[in-house]
Amino acid sequence: MPIEKNELRRVMGHFPTGVTVITTFSKTGELHGLTANAFSSVSLVPPLVLVCVDKKAESYPCFEASRCFTVNFLADDQEELSRRFAVSGGNKFEGVGYRLGANQVPILNGVLAYIECKLVGGYEGGDHTIYVGEIEQAETREAKPLVFYRGGYRNLSD
Length: 158
Ligand SMILES: Cc1cc2nc3c(=O)[nH]c(=O)nc-3n(C[C@H](O)[C@H](O)[C@H](O)COP(=O)(O)O)c2cc1C
Prior knowledge:
Blueprint: H1 5-12, E1 17-18, E2 20-25, E3 31-36, E4 39-43, E5 48-54, H2 60-66, E6 68-73, H3 79-85, E7 98-100, E8 106-108, E9 113-125, E10 128-140, E11 146-149, E12 152-155
Antiparallel strand pairs: 1-11, 2-3, 2-6, 4-5, 5-10, 6-9, 7-8, 9-10, 11-12
């Protein structure tokens, strides 16, 4: 029997992750973003990453439309941003500091790191699509990460 959805969520919650906001834009140029922790490095040569996006997310069609996205790694003082981008609807960018990258995708202020990607693949992943991006530009700064573990936000203690 397949594992029940809430039980799967509970079990997966035992794997600590960082928290990202994936930003992109729609075919009409409207900015979009969603909180995501289903993110991973894929390949060094070529430099590839992946993010799994729910097919029901409002930002879902933007990935094919813009063919680019930026992965923003949240810092430990950005929990409020994570909560904001985890709720659908409205203009999530209102009152949020950001600048547009070379690809016209928002880079959020104060993030630990960002990775600008061009979309190079989309693969079936059940109710999600696995989007693979090739890294075009990336930058880091000195800060601590926001961590998600067992359904709650955590900070690294060291
Ligand atoms: C910690 C955390 C991690 C999440 N990870 C993902 C994820 O990896 N992929 C995803 O599609 N949604 C994920 N979500 C849910 C989306 O952020 C949420 O569905 C959001 O409302 C989608 O925004 P949109 O509808 O404007 O695109 C996560 C939410 C939280 C709080």
